Amino acid sequence: MNIRVLAWAVCMATVSAPMAMANDTSARLASGGLVFGKQLGVVMQSEDLYISPDVIRVRYVFRNETATDLETIVAFPLPEAAPSGDIGGGYNFGDGVTANFVDFKTWADGTPVVTQVEQKALALGLDRTEILNRLGVPIGSYIPPTDPRSAFHGLSRLSEAEWSELAALGLLRIDPQGHPSPGWTVATTFYWTQVFSAGKDTVIEHQYRPLTGSSFDAPISSDPDNHDAARAAIRFCISEQDRKALHALHDGKIDGRTYTAFSEELGYILKTAANWSGAIRDFHLVIEAREPVDFVFACLPGLKRISPSRLELSEAQFWPFSDLDVLFVISKPLDN
């Protein structure tokens, strides 16, 4: 068996809020953590990707086109997220104290895989995990701030001199009332060792709960001076026809009912799929809102609107050159 050593440059994918999910990528354990790079000889035969506000499901078929079994670490990185309860976070991590706050599950050829998890605390672009560990401050993004095991409680137990040290490194913020809060973000990666048998297909499947950024208002407006709506139209490819259809529904012109609009956003990292050998030979994507009266918007070449609540893409030899941002507009009926 030939164990492939991936010694290429770091290719860590990170995005800003709203939080994104990610594609599989090959990796190796190196000093300081996981390093991502290409896995030559293994192609992605197909990827079937389903995205909704409540669940993401992915099914990959990989083929080892060499005459030798290849063993590598497969990694699933999540982008950076602020510790739970941080100002501007807006994510509900639940009340658990597990690093698997997205209920991530994976299977290889139908058999459940036990994954390991790595978490790093990043501030000002640097890995500061060791410093926080030395001071006994939990870094986890998933523990509620009211929990004694949270980052917030860990910071509150430190001295003012230690606060000053952390503040200088971008690891600490103090609010006007003198309360400390984390200044770092947490990068979480699930990983496991996978053998790709020579000349054979390997099926890897994932399922997990996405973390979405929520708003009580949808960034869609007929006002030409509404800059948020203008930016959203570009970012999520909202056409004038889409905007008119949404307003017609919400104004009661479709079914006689009037609606109010909420929004949820999520991102999905597609570009890490380029770490495998060649293009994705058969790529299929479905993005679907919860209800038929909801709308979904996203930008990706070839993405087609099947209905207001469903987008779909099928493409051979797909190259994931860009990541994906998705906007769900949730339509809630008003009492009429």
Automatic annotation (TrEMBL):
Residues 1-22 form the signal peptide. InterPro entries: DUF4424. Residues 22-327 form the DUF4424 domain. Keywords: Signal. This is DUF4424 domain-containing protein. It comes from Hoeflea alexandrii. The lineage of its organism: Bacteria, Pseudomonadati, Pseudomonadota, Alphaproteobacteria, Hyphomicrobiales.
